[in-house]
Amino acid sequence: MFDALTDRLERLSSSLRSRGRLSDADLDAALEDVRTALLEADVELGVVHAFIEAVRERLSGDVLQQSLTPGQQVIKAVHEQLIEVLGSSALKVTYASRPPTVILLAGLQGAGKTTTAAKLALWFKQQGRQPYLIAADLQRPAAVEQLRVLGSQIGVDVFSASTTPVKVARAGVAEATRLGRDVVIVDTAGRLAIDEALMREVRDISKTTSPHYTFLVIDAVTGQSAVETARAFHESLALSGIIVTKLDYDSRGGAVLSARGVVGRPVVFASTGEKLSDFDLFHPDRMASRILGMGDMLSLIEEAERTMDADVVAESAGRMMSGQFTLDDFLSQLNQVKKMGSLGGLMKLMPGVSKEMRTAASSIEDKDINRVEAIVRSMTPKERRDPSVIDASRRTRIAKGSGTTVPAVNQLLNQFTQMRKMMKQMAGGKTPDVPGMGKMASLAARSAQTREQLPAGFEALGAGMAAGTPRPGTNSKGKKKKGGRVTPPKQR
Amino acid sequence: MSIFGRRRQKRLVAKEERAPMPPVLVDEALVRPRLDGNSSNLDKRLSGSRGIFDRVRALSSSGAVSVDELSVVEEVLLRSDVGVSTTNVIVESLRTNGAPDGVASAVRQELLDALGEKDRSLRVDCDEGRIPVWLFVGVNGVGKTTSIGKLAKREVDAGARVVLAAGDTFRAAAADQLQLWAEITGADIVRASEGADPSSVVHDALERAKARNASLVLADTAGRRHTSSNLLDELSKIRRVADRPPGQVTETLLVLDATTGQNALTQAQEFLAAASVTGIILTKLDGTARGGIVVAIQQELGVPVKLVGVGESADDLVPFVPSEFVEALLEA
């Protein structure tokens, strides 16, 4: 996501960084680049113009006299403006004093409303709430069925009836109240384009249920029409926020900027993958940093904190560095990685990770990790501690036990040995360029190169280590959550 | 009422006796896709786009094009999702060549040139004894299943014996959605349980098609990110299976959402590489969406747009005619 914009601005920043002063011509050229980058990212033309003017404004006058280099000035101004357009802070979801808190989802066909409804329900469930889903999309064939299936996957009840959308919504909210659910999410029908019938239906549902929050679900790959869509829904429904979907596509996501710029309401949630758990609050400040190529360390750290067992990571990381890394550690690393979701998603959050590496990482699916896990689990504790005892007969046994082949076991063992060697070198090794991340990146890059012959899990290990890296054993919850960026702590 | 509805109704009764929770009550047979719908022309459906192009038309100067006019052209094209590079090419061309017959005419000609002359028919010709397969690919939510339903309607009406392969085994209820279309159109359908191997569904559909002497197989696939190489590999496999006798893939149709911006180009590139896309179906081309990215796709990748979806009813999937497309944008 935002790759092109990031690339573009990175190039922009490097060309500007080499200059001593910023002339008017420089500024014009820089802003022209910003304009092109934003347009290529599908930001709507009007929003682009407003954005450019705002950046120019920021850069005019005495601001230029300050101690930053001209290049930094432009980057800073673009960054600040991005944050401003994206919303200077994440919207905090508060709950109604008299439950249930009703949330209405609206949007065009194919934006991902139904999936988003389920993801949102899961999110609330993880917050300790008791969500309830109402399927009021009676338009699309099998939409109700889809929500019902998704609901059963996340263990959330789904209400619907074969009446009218408005009646379904009303009855659903009443039912939720009766059952004592505290969050109700209403999925509504989408249409091909904004039409009066659609608007009337959604408006009627809105009147009936008086939602506390009305979210517009918008597809991150939407082009210039994002603005019209957002405006039409906003005029009709008074949106409280935007949920952006398909942020895992390599789209540049300009629709986020467009919709935000026009509606003036924050982007609240972002959906970043196909899994129902690939969903979280949208962080404008982080997004702005990411657009500018600063990576998304905050998201990464928070994700790591949420899913990784600190003690497990610290322990195996310690052993890793002392060269006593065992297959058991390897396995626990793998499981940590699995808990954090897809590797591709993880890699995206890290700064300085190339597109090629991201592509390589995204090709690793749970299936591969499971296979590696099966092999390791088929070993005895002794074998896991000291793989050198594994002879031909043991290999055959392990292959049989894991349902794989001897060559697969060999591959894993070879790569594990190599990996261990590399770790030893790293532990005693040279200081990386990027604090904390450099070693991991180069390691992962190396495994990406040889990926064809590798059991995929080893790359997973690379990422697992990287993810473990920013946390040298302490649990400083919440401490780093404020502010725009975080410098990862040095490796131990 | 369909078998579906009855079964659900029965399940409902059984469940209510057990649990206080109301299960899903809906009978989706009530809300089937519309088949009738007034098939008004593309011109009318493109009215949203036309408004903006009116501004180009209004520019009536001839010969050299002024800076103001150029910037209007630029704005119009950009707002239509034509994209920065294609827009720049057209604007540059206007700047250097001028517009002897007026700016609107020049822009129209540029757009037509970019779209080019292409074979836009859907091919069914294949080797003796084999059954043509049309494979539908694309990202999530673009309207693959709906497009298949509409095409099935068209082909069945034209006398073809159609088998639908519910190859989207990932999205919850995707097969149900296709099943509804099968019931409406009278096409045969082969489906498997959720999570089954899509290739095997396609294989089974071919077997069924052969046994029933069908003349066309329409194969659905799960929407997939074009950024996941694994999913694209899976797609390549589906295509290989579909291309094995008795099947023969005569069309691989990439379904694109007209509201998509510049990312559509990347999508087209990736799917072209993974599944040898032979044509594009541009869906949701109506009031809001301008669909300008089509121009860039065809210019840069040479993949022809074959069909456009201009509405929700089954008759609203129509052949793409470049002159009509451009005329509809430019003519008042």
Could you characterize the architecture of this molecule?
- The complex is a heterodimer of chains A (492) and B (332).
- Helix content of chain A is 56%, strand content 8%.
- Chain A contains 22 helices and eight strands.
- Chain A has helices spanning 3-17, 24-40, 45-59, 70-86, 113-126, 143-154, 165-179, 196-209, 226-237, 254-263, 284-291, 297-307, 310-321, 327-339, 343-349, 355-362, 366-377, 381-385, 392-402, 406-428, 438-449, 457-468, and strands spanning 101-106, 131-136, 158-159, 183-188, 213-219, 241-245, 267-271, 279-281.
- Chain A has an eight-stranded mixed sheet, sandwiched between helices.
- Chain B has helices at residues 3-18, 42-45, 47-58, 67-79, 84-97, 103-115, 144-157, 174-185, 198-211, 229-242, 263-275, 293-301, 322-330; strands at 131-137, 162-165, 188-190, 216-219, 247-257, 279-283, 305-309, 317-319.
- Chain B is elongated, with a radius of gyration of 22 Å.
- In chain B, α3 packs across α6 and α6 runs antiparallel to α13 (322-330).
- With 332 residues, chain B is of the alpha/beta class.
- An eight-stranded mixed sheet of chain B has the order 3-2-4-1-5-6-7-8, sandwiched between helices.
- In chain B, 47% of the residues lie in helices and 13% in strands.
- Chain B folds into three domains: 1-28, no CATH class; 45-115, SRP54, nucleotide-binding domain (Four Helix Bundle (Hemerythrin (Met), subunit A)), CATH 1.20.120.140; 131-330, P-loop containing nucleotide triphosphate hydrolases (Rossmann fold).
